Amino acid sequence: MNIFRLLGDFSHLGAIFILLLKIWTTRSCAGVSGKSVLLYAIIFTCRYLDLLVHYVSLYNSIMKIIYLVATYFTLYLIYVKFKSTYHRSHDSFRIELLILPSAALAFLWNHEFSVLEVLWTFSIYLESVAILPQLYMVSKTGQAEIITSHYLFALGIYRFFYILNWIYRYYMENFLDWISIISGIIQTILYCDFFYLYITKVIRRKGTGISETI
Fold this sequence. Notes:
Strand content: under 5%
Distance between the termini: 36 Å
Structural class: mainly alpha
Number of strands: 0
């Protein structure tokens, strides 16, 4: 494992716990897209089914379990414990428009036509667009809480480090996975506009201690 993969993993883990911390400490899931979290639950479930049949390393297994448990716990907070604070009317992106094309593409373009491989490929395609419901919610309401912005930024940084990981593996290990690379680039592009807003409105105003939204 290289440093970029490690930084990417912990950026992703950080994003998940930032979101959990936001919901738990404020006792509210206002501004959070339950649909994006649901998509990530589907992604991790499909991707990590190999836990049942393949052992890679202790680190790999622990990280997968943490992702799964934390994501499903976040879903519980949104749809059960704090459901009265969930803005369902704002979270109106039609996720079937993301799930169905991702599933179809996974059947058409994969490394191997087996159940686990197709599910893994589906999770990669779906992850590239899973943040769209959250970004749509932000654009629809016209603002995002600072903590939600940190969550989105951490997810974007996670993907950025994974792109560096793929570049490193290509030059150092002669490894190339076009499915992951293309999906990752698409996901990063989706964050570009948000990155601009984050840098100009969150970081530059951080010193004031006043701004609560972007």
